[in-house]
Design a protein that fits this description.
The model has no long low-confidence stretch (mean pLDDT about 95). This protein is mostly helical. It contains four helices and no strands. It starts with a helix and ends in a 5-residue tail after the last helix.
């Protein structure tokens, strides 16, 4: 299903973000992760899986490109990137609520 592919794509670029890359990549990362997390959050709220929807909404807020959160510590971002990637990969492997 489309939602699973989007979650896998976002997880892959989150893992790539742990590497030292130019700032333009991180801007693109924020846009993609925000979009996937916001769309997925809406999807799961519609399917009455509110806990999943809430966690995805939190991910969307953290990677929000419009009002970005600056942590100024690459190590914290690496931990957040890995955590969000693991969550999205685990979620993509679950059977999607029809």
């Amino acid at each position: 299903m489309v939602i699973q592919k989007l979650l896998i794509f976002a997880a892959i670029i989150l893992l790539i973000a742990t590497l030292p890359l130019p700032n333009e990549f991180y801007t693109l990362l924020r846009i993609v992760v925000f979009g996937v997390a916001a769309y997925s959050s809406y999807y799961y709220f519609q399917k009455e899986a509110s806990q999943t929807g809430l966690l995805l909404a939190l991910i969307a807020v953290i990677w929000n490109p419009l009002i970005p959160i600056y942590l100024y510590d690459k190590f914290i971002w690496i931990l957040l990137d890995i955590g969000a990637a693991i969550y999205m990969l685990a979620l993509s492997r679950k059977k999607v609520i029809e």
